[in-house]
Amino acid sequence: MPRVGYSRPGSWSSFWAILTLVGLVTRAAQRADLGGEAAGTSINHSHMLLQRLQELLRNGNASDVVLRVQAAGTEEVRVFHAHRLLLSLHSEPLRELLWNQSEVALQEPRECAAVFDKFIRYLYCGELTVQLAQAIPLHRLATKYGVASLQRGVADYMRAHLAAGAGPAVGWYHYAVSAGDEALRDSCLQFLAWNLSAVAGSAEWGVVSPELLAQLLQRSDLVLQDELELFHALEAWLGRVRPPPPVAESALRAIRYPMIPPAQLFQLQARSAALARHGAAVADLLLQAYQFHAASPLHFAKFFDVNGSAFLPRNYLAPAWGAAWVINNPARDDRSTSFQTQLGPSGHDAGRRVTWNVLFSPRWLPVSLRPVYADAAGTALPAARPEDGRPRLVVTPASSGGEAAGVSFQKTVLVGARQQGRLLVRHAYNFHQSSEEAGDFLLHADLQRRNSEYLVENALHLHLIVKPVYHTLIRTPN
Questions:
Q1: Tens digit of pLDDT for each residue in 405-441?
Q2: In whole angstroms, what is the distance from residue 460 CA to residue 417 CA?
Q3: pTM (2 decimals)?
Q4: 242, 266 contact by CB (below 8 A)
Q5: Which of 134, 102, 104 is nearest to 119 (CA)?
Q6: How far apart are CA 252 and CA 469, in angstroms?
Q7: pLDDT tens digit string along 305-331?
Q8: Is 299 exposed, middle or buried (CB count within 10 Å of its CB: 0-12, 13-18, 19+)?
C-alpha cells in the first residue's frame, strides 16, 4: 500500500524552541508592565512562532499522534505525524478520536484526502491558500471536524468568488443544501437569479436539480431579457434532463405566460417540443394569457385575480421595461437621463408609454437644491459638494398617467460588473413602491477608487427597470 506523508525525526529542538520563544515574549510584556511606562512597547514575534509551527508540522518533531488518511476507493494512504494538543485546540471531534490513542485511521473522499495537508496546516498556522476546486473539500473537512473558523472562511471565499462570477454557482448551491449552509445556499441562489441568462447558456445549466429549478422559477427577481428567454431556457433543461412528467409539468406551469405577447405565444404552441408533450398541463394558463392580452386590465380583473405572480413582470432587460445607462466618471458630477416603458404587460396597454426622468448624483442633494432635469437627457448638471454625502438615484414619472390607468410601479436598479469578459449583475437595489429613491443605493460604494467593484473601466453600468403592478387600484370581487 503506497504511503505519502511527513517523516518523524526524534528531535525535540523545535518544540522547546517554541516554548522558549513564548516565554521570552511573555517576560518582555511583564517587564514592560512592571516598569510603569506611560506608553507600552509592543514586541511581536508572532511570525517567528508561525514559522516554528510550520517546521513542527513539516518535520514531525515531538509528534505524539499519527493520522493515516486513506482516500476512499483507493489504497493511497497519507501519513501525518502530528501533535495531539494542537489538533484538539481546534477540533472537538479530533480530540475525541485521539483520546488515549496514538494512531488513528481516517477514510475521506478522494477530493478531501487530496487537501488534507492544507486542512492540517490550517490547524497549525491558521492560514491556507484555496483554489476553486478545493473549496468544497475544505469546507466539508471543516464541517466534519467542527473547525468553525475554517468553515466560515471557506464559505466567505465561495461567496466572494460567486460575486465575481468565478465560482460554479450551481455546484456550490447543491453542496450548500447538502451541508446545511443556508447563507451559502442563499448567496448561490441570489447569484443565479441575477445572472440566469449567463448560467442558462453554460454547461452548468444541465446539472441544475429539479429542486433548484423550482426555486428559481418562483422568483420575481430573475434578471432576463424577457419571459420568452426563460421559457426557452426551461425547454433546453427539459431536453437535457428529461425529468418525470409531473416535474416537467410543474416547471412549465411556473412560466408567467401573461408576460409573453400573443404573437410569441402562438409560435410557442406551434413549434415548442415541450408544449407538444405537456401542452394539456398548461392549457388553462395559455387561455388565461390570451384573455389577459385581449381585454382591458380593468375588465379582466372583474373575472380573474390579478394579484398573483403570473401577472407580475420579473426583472426584464428588454426595452419595454427599462433602459441601460452607462455613467462615465460617476464621482465627478450629476447626470440625468430619461427613458420610456410600456404602461403595463397587457396587450391592451402595449401601445401606451410612461416617460421616466432619472437623476444621478455622486453626492446627495436636498430636494430643494436639486436642479430641474426634465428634458436634457445626458446633460451634466452642477457638481454637488463633497460634504453632501453618498450617491443618490431619483426616478420620477413625467406625468401621472399610470395612476389613472390603475397601475403602480416597482423600480429596480441593477449594477453590472465585468468579470472574465462578461458583464454580470453584481448588485440590485429595489425602490419602495411609493418612493422615488432606493434608500440603500450604492450605500457602501467608493466611486473614487478606480478598481472599485462597482465600476467597469471607471464607468458605472446601470440598468433601470420599471415593473407595472395592477393590484394597487384594481380590486377583484370576493
A1: 567 889 999 998 766 656 789 899 998 777 888 888 9
A2: 9
A3: 0.79
A4: no
A5: 134
A6: 23
A7: 887 889 999 999 999 999 999 999 898
A8: exposed
